[in-house]
Structure of DUF1206 domain-containing protein:
Amino acid sequence: MTIHESMGPLTGPGRSSSRAWETMARAGYAVSGALHLVLAFLIIRLPFSGGDADQSQALTTVGDAPGGTALLWVAVAGFVALGAWQAADATRRGQQASDRAKAAGKAVVYVALAGVAVSVALGGGSSSGGQAKGLTAMLLDLPGGPVIVGAVALGILATAVFHVWKGASHRFLDDLRATGGAELSTVVTATGTTGYIAKGIALGAVGVLFGFAALTTDADKAKGLDGAIESLLDLPGGPVIVVAVGLGFAAYGLYSMVRARYARM
């Protein structure tokens, strides 16, 4: 169901405006897919040449390309539109509380990504590791800080488990309309499954690091996506694991590209 359908029939300028809004929201999925492909490249190169692998670095890489600044502002517009769409969905009448919560959470994520894109476009931005440390240090200074950080860690771990479950169970297909052909459906299922599981693994590493920060009351233990991926390198067979996660992010990027066309809005 689209927003204009949930609000009742629209005609004339109202319907045109709603369609334009939906087009921009779908563009947000395409931008997300492109960023995941850049992230995949950054992750895969880590075992060989180092560097950072997070959303800020991915956006910086896009900005450094010819015409990159213009592309960053397109990304801002797409993320804002998608965030607004999710926010509107969270307030739609007839929604279950769990659906409202998921839509609201997605709205926050996309608006945050828009903020990062604006910062990078204007020449700023910081790594996810620095942001995580700053946030954790602030939380640890609060009364009951370790408990709060522990709760954040559990929330991230729950999100990680949800991603793995959604990928393994193919529940992400519920987010799509019919993709129009068995061959395409097979590709979508494969990329979605691989992508969601890979994101779940990466988020799980982030959650574990936040858990260590809570147990040790040391903000330096908390790291973002870049630090989490680097921590996977220390595991037995770490480089192979990291490359596999990078390929998973690439699969998620391809899935997001398809989602831009076939998402249920």
